[in-house]
Amino acid sequence: MDPKLINDCVHCGFCLPTCPTYALWGEEMDSPRGRIHLMKQHVEGTPITPEMAGHFDACLGCMACVTACPSGVRYDRLIEQTRVEVERQHVREPHDRAVRGLVFSLFPYPRRLRLLRPTMWLAERMAPFLTRANPSLGAMATLAPRVRHRQRLPRLVRARGERRATVGMLLGCVQREFFPQVNAATARVLALEGCDVVVPPEQGCCGALSVHSGRDGQARRLASRTIRAFERAGVDTVVVNAAGCGSSMKEYGELLGHEPPFRVVDLSEYLAELGPVAKRHPLPLTVAYHDACHLAHAQGVRAQPRELLSAIPELELREIPESAICCGSAGTYNLLQPEAARDLGDRKARAVGTTGAELLVSANPGCTMQIAAAMRRGGSAIRVAHTAEVLDASLRGVTL
Fold it and tell me: Which residues pair with 384 in a beta bridge?
């Protein structure tokens, strides 16, 4: 943990209203400034106790506090450094070690997720039993969506019309296996806007889930493999359609000590930069747009997706109350801290419900699963889609 970053905090409290766990429990040690106080204690010689580790584990890493902080405190760097220390020094209870071992031996590996997919219908039916046995297993069973058709993308998707650019595209892990339609829509949108889209077949997990959970070694290995895949592809820009992945890939320089030979941009960020050429067809829908934390707070991408959606004829965009408060997904948080995540998911679902929108749009697969599950619990029939799917429907003139 960097003492200088710790000392940047003046404990003003501007972070408190934006912190999801402080909003839930009102406990000082479950706020950013409280956790920074614990970090300072550790740097000054206090060992990491189980109670201290519990407060660090309860943090979602949503970075809303980074946006709110008037002093520019890099809480995002601090919590990542702290989690590495927790993983190195703290001895977890056997059941916690078992759940974490399962999560991090499964989710960063798309082929393993693929083998799991056909069993999800059974897991969903067994969810009440699994929840009683272990809340984390119950969360896994209830969150995953049904995948009807697996869609394979070719190594190269050619631009429609005049080629304006060539970009690489990250497939992701959860996105690839549970939301293949989002990747297909992303490639079509880029192609319709004049991009050759290169899809390296050897790409795997970008390392985001691992870096957000303090698994430094695994994160470095996965990040290095991702860099090699796109380096071999020969692209200078990689477009990402998952907020958490894009956030981590933009920080590869800090993780590995050297910058990758390409720049990383979010899909909405890149399309806004590129400018539209393809015709938008009307979509008569009321849409609520959800700010994924790792897109809004980590990457500062807020205006671009709203501009892209608002440019679609007959689409009405509605804002969600408390948009800065995390939905509770936060990478693996809803698996490792299922009770707190459920409370935050239900809170977000109620906020979405007040908009009266027909469609919820999200730019992160974790958020999509989390909010969809919460909406189902609340008895809502609202549909959920990715920004790419909405744009794809408008560009092709099809219903969504």
Answer: 360
Assigned token pair, 343: 């409370």
pLDDT at 112 over 90: no
CA–CA–CA angle 335, 58, 121 (5° rounding): 10
- Rounded Cα distance between 172 and 108, Å, is 9
Structural domains of the chain, with CATH: 3-89 (1.10.1060.10), 285-396 (3.40.50)
pTM: predicted TM-score of the whole model, two decimal places? 0.90
Res. 143: pLDDT tops 90: no
Find the length of the chain. Answer: 400
Tokens of 164: 């304006």
Q: In what order do the strands lie in the sheet with 285-289?
A: 315-319, 285-289, 359-362, 383-386
Whether 106 shows a pLDDT value over 80: the answer reads yes
Amino acid at 326: C
CA distance 346 to 373: 9
Report, in angstroms and rounded to the nearest whole number, the Rg of the chain calculated over CA atoms. 21
Strands (E) in the chain, as ranges, are: 156-157, 165-169, 195-198, 237-240, 263-266, 285-289, 315-319, 359-362, 383-386
Reduced to 3 states (helix: H, G, I; strand: E, B; else coil), residue 132 is helix
Residue 315, SS3 per DSSP: strand
What backbone torsions phi and psi does residue 147 show, to the nearest 5 degrees?
A: -110, 115
> What pLDDT was estimated at residue 123?
60
Strand partners, 169: 239
Largest CA distance in the chain: 63
What residues contact 152, with CB distance under 8 A and at least 6 apart? Answer: none
pLDDT digits (tens, 9 = 90+) for 30-60: 999 999 999 999 999 999 999 999 999 999 9
CB 63 within 8 A of CB 297: yes
**Res 386 pLDDT > 70:** yes
Tokens of 226: 């991702």
Element (H, E) at 23: helix 20-25
